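Protein modeling request. Please complete all fields; requests missing the sequence field cannot be processed.
Requester role: graduate student
Desired output: 3D structure, token encoding
Chains: 1
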Amino acid sequence: MPGPQIPEAPARPNVLLIMCDQFRGDCLGFAGHPDVKTPFLDSLAAQGTFFDRAYSACPTCVPARATLFTGQTPGHHGRVGYEDGISWNFPHMMPQEFRDAGYQTACVGKLHVHPPRLACGFETLRLHDGYLGCYQGGDIPHWMHQDVHDDYLRFLRAEIGPDAYIDSTGPECNSWICHPWIFEERLHPTNWVADETIRFLETRDRTRPFFAMASFVRPHPPLDAPQSYLDRYIGRDLREPACGDWDDTEATERDGMMPASVHGCRDAEMRHEALAGYYAAITHIDHQVGRLISALKRDGSFNDTIIVFLSDHGEMLFDHSLWRKLLPYEGAAHIPLFIRMGTHIARTVPHRSESVVELMDVMPTLLDLCGIDLPAKVDGTSLAREVLDGAPIDRAYVHGEHAFTEEQSHHYIVTPRDKYIWFSQTGVERYFDLADDPREEHDLIADPARRERVDEMRFWLVRELEGREEGFVRDGELVVGRPVVTVLSHPAI
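Delivered output (493 residues):
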């Protein structure tokens, strides 16, 4: 008797979207970082298109992921700041578009949507969102509690016992305190994401192409990489954080003993430990990405797959005496982004792009590369021609924003060579020449030679904000001190 038929490989390319949380745009060896080691990610970046000027327009987890999934600007999808517990009722999301086009879709790791376990078009969900205070209390429905909906937590307790928890190592989810992972390395959530993604790849439906999202929680704190990774950095001299002529070091002296303070840490030894812990988390992720590459190569699908690597936002990492994300500066807003085309899909010339791009561009790019029609009302631009032919996109700037506290609420305009920032509650403005000052150490807002350029970029921002419900613009001028709104009541969709 003849043996079983082997299904033909799907004609359309697979997509593996590798996402990290709070991964800075400069923290790759390929990006030129002097300390952090990322050999597997570097090898992928060297084979694809690396976008040197990639940004997160609203640099915290929820709004950034909304931008990624909808292909819209924050002002259009309505999430212009961080707020948990708001339903994701967007009419179109990237995983839905792939599913509806016949792809098998899966997400492993962090999704961070509401309500938890909302599928968003994913047919397979293996979730771990990190520590989410919103889903820890006793005043929410039982099914929403993280004890119930988090697959990794269930796995950890099956391995360790019922008392194991996400924060068992000690450091909490936004602090600069570093402590190595206390359980076996194989039980770390970074390993778990790789394990579960490989399991999906091994057991997938071979009659369909796949769209898989491997979404790592790290290097977002807690800074709890396994000891072997921490040892690579803890005893080394590491590059000092960026220091500018505009830094508020007095705020660090005032607040720098609070582990989650946005104003950083005033203890030099603990700052060094945090840097080492952050870099250790990145190298740990890199090695797990190496396992994903090996899994694709083992089953022969590596060169039938588009591999994308990105982050939702960065981390200030004590640059300018600041910690955490949200801010318009390079540490928080600049993200890594590269796209590697499998050689069976297209023969491309690896290169670095200086086009200024944003998370909203990922959805139209991947749909374009996979031959899937774009839904209506998408703001992003397809980067397919840049990836395939090296043709830069026609875009002068990206507009970014984040509503939060009086000190931190801001808007920014960034181009391939410079950046203008306006803090909406205080009226403070900053201007940086990124071409000559990539670490933003010199604020040139008061430089008479830059006045014309600042006026031009301020005009662009006015144009972006005209008609917004917050009332940021009146008679063609920016208005300071308008009420802070994190979710627009009438997003312009």
